[in-house]
Description:
This protein is an alpha/beta fold and 235 residues long. The chain has 8 helices and 9 strands. The mean pLDDT is 97.
Amino acid sequence: MKPIAIFRHAPSEGPGYFSQFLDEHKIPWQLIRIDVGDAVPRDASVFAGLVFMGGPMSVNDDLPWIAQIETLIRDAVAQDIPLLGHCLGGQLISKALGGVVSRNPLKEIGWGEVAVSENDVARAWFGDIHKFPAFHWHGETFTLPQGATHLLSSAYCINQGYAIGKHLALQCHIEMTAEMISTWCAVGADEVAASSTSPAVQTVGEIRRQVNGNLPLLNSVAARLYGHWLKGIAA
């Protein structure tokens, strides 16, 4: 089968658990490293699916690759090629499809419970899962594009996820591994300290303390979502 393209926008925000999941299921994938200047493909049909990871930038920044990725996203939708977005990736999908990305009322960093919406589309994606501890690291949020169905919300961010057919966009991070969390806590320690007045921001110590309790459940939720997303991939 064609590989799944995974877009990395920052060195510390790679595919994480998603690449492990693909390897376990013997599904080929290709990492496109936007952060080191890899070119954005022009034709989505080269790939079985497109997956966009996180990043510290805003989709509203004046970066040349953002418009190129938006064009690629629209090309994928036109060719019925599944999209999957994590945090910045979800925002890129939203913006490309007519949504708006703007500042969230509060910055969200660390572990925080998300609730699954009560609708048939959400049940198809999540099964019997009604809530779970997700990982967050964002200051912006997206609106839902036309035709999207709301999937997730948290106490501090209404739009944590949506689906449009076989396409899935998330504001939260489900792709986390223990190594990624450790790296983010080290790289982002100053940001955490500067945002300590937000009730949606945990200390680095609290984030690390909750890893052992929360990460296995998060990985199981991710496996459920990734498995459902793969059903939309053409063989």
